[in-house]
Structures are given as structure tokens and as C-alpha cells.
Amino acid sequence: xxxxxxxxxxxxxxxxxxxxxxxxxxxxxxxxxxxxxxxxxxxxxxxxxxxxxxxxxxxxxxxxxxxxxxxxxxxxxxxxxxxxxxxxxxxxxxxxxxxxxxxxxxxxxxxxxxxxxxxxxxxxxxxxxxxxxxxxxxxxxxxxxxxxxxxxxxxxxxxxxxxxxxxxxxxxxxxxxxxxxxxxxxxxxxxxxxxxxxxxxxxxxxxxxxxxxxxxxxxxxxxxxxxxxxxxxxxxxxxxxxxxxxxxx
Length: 249
Ligand code: NAD
Hints:
Blueprint: E1 8-12, H1 20-30, E2 34-39, H2 42-52, E3 57-60, H3 66-80, E4 85-88, H4 103-131, E5 134-139, H5 142-146, H6 154-174, E6 179-186, H7 200-209, H8 218-229, E7 240-243
Parallel strand pairs: 1-2, 1-4, 2-3, 4-5, 5-6, 6-7
Helix pairs in contact: 1-8, 3-4, 4-6
The chain binds nicotinamide-adenine-dinucleotide (NAD).
Nicotinamide-adenine-dinucleotide is lined by residues 12-13, 15-16, 19-21, 39-40, 61-64, 89-92, 112, 116, 139, 141, 186, 188-189, 191-194.
């Protein structure tokens, strides 16, 4: 099936080998999209795009830098003439407790997860408005919904809760332009963001707490992103979709 045939998509933070962004970019490409992978390191972004095929693009872009976001989108608009899909996936965590969070920690986590989502969205919205269509998918987290997690820290929960608020506000404002904005709230997914940070005991405790009895895979989240990016979800906007194996039941 080619759910994204003829579509042009950006996925931020998609160079990480085991990450949710790379799995999403791959699934989009498998479904016929032309994909741009944006990440901090140009070589890593280019290599990840090359893995998908010659027509895909890898660009360096720090999503906390508004000028860099605008420049990357301008570059892609020049190549493609349009952007149909944006997945705001770039994110960082810091496993800190409330009194350990310094101003620099707070800025870093809020900047990548929340400010980056705003800046990248602002970069694509004018074109989407003109073409009267678009789908923006934002990565939030179960940490936003239940106020914590092992990896994030309270500032990560705050940033990801901010992503939910931004998602709903953007969805409301952009709906008349036929631009849909939705969020995904992954639970515990095995990626580099979680790798090496857990003892076997901690891992066992987490898995026991998940009704489906397993960690999520990057492909579980990619499937949800495909649904939200494609016309299968044509009447969904402002939603948050849980991909957590039942963790909130
Ligand atoms: P990851 O660490 O594997 O990948 C994150 C990517 O973001 C990396 O490639 C990194 O280089 C990139 N990045 C970091 N700062 C950036 C910046 N300023 N500009 C551009 N790129 C930047 O993480 P992941 O597990 O694949 O997570 C992807 C998203 O899903 C994140 O937003 C994360 O918060 C969210 N999430 C993950 C989990 C999980 O369990 N893995 C759970 C809930 C939410």
C-alpha cells in the first residue's frame, strides 16, 4: 500500500539509528513519500537519508535555532515546491529530580522539545496554508500525561505537556486551512534515548507495569505517525494518540 504516494515529508531528529524518527522516515518512504531527515549532524542526516534511497534528503538543522529551521524548509521548498507532512520528533531527556534542575537544564529540555516544535511548525505553516493542506505530527510522551518517567525529569514532563497544549492550539487555529495537527504520546520504547540507562531490575519493573508485557518498538510509533500523516486520519485534528501498551489503563 502507498498511503503517502506523491507526498513530501520532513522528520526531525531522524538520524538516530534506533530512533522513532528513523523508523518513521523509513515507513513514510516505504509508503511512497519523499522524506527529508533533519538532525544536528549533517553527515548523520545525509547517511540516514541515503539509507532510504537517492531521492531522500538529509540536512543539518538544530531545531532550537529559528533561522536554521527556516533555512532548511526554504531549501526543501526550493527542491520540492511543497511540504505535506512535518513530524516534530527531535527531543532530549535529562534524568533529573526537581531540585536538580538548573536554569541550563530547563532551557535545554524546553528548547529542543517545545521551542523546536514551534519553530519547525512556523517554518512549514505558510506553505501549507497556501496549498490548503498539511499534517503536523508532534511527539509528546506518557511523561506529560502521568507526570514523570524514569528518563525524563519534571522539566521533560513539562515540555511534553507543553507540546500537547501547542498541538491543540495549532490544530484549532489551522483547521480552517485544512492543516491537521496531532500528537503521539509514546510510552516506554526501546531506543537510544532509553538505552544503557536501566539496570535489569529497573527494566523488569517497567515491563511488569505495562499491561501488554513488553516495551514498545520504534515501529509501533512509526505506524501511528503514518496514520496521522496520511489521509486515513483525515478527520482527526487536535488529538493525542497513546502508543504505550496500555500503560495508562
Ligand atoms: P533518540 O535519542 O533516539 O533520537 C532523538 C534525535 O533527536 C537524535 O537523532 C538527536 O540527534 C536529535 N536531536 C536532539 N536535539 C536536536 C536538535 N536540537 N535539533 C535537531 N535534532 C536534535 O530519541 P527517540 O527515543 O527516538 O525519541 C524521539 C522522540 O520521541 C523524542 O521527542 C522523545 O522525547 C519522544 N519519546 C520517546 C520515548 C521513548 O521511550 N523512546 C517515549 C516518549 C516520547
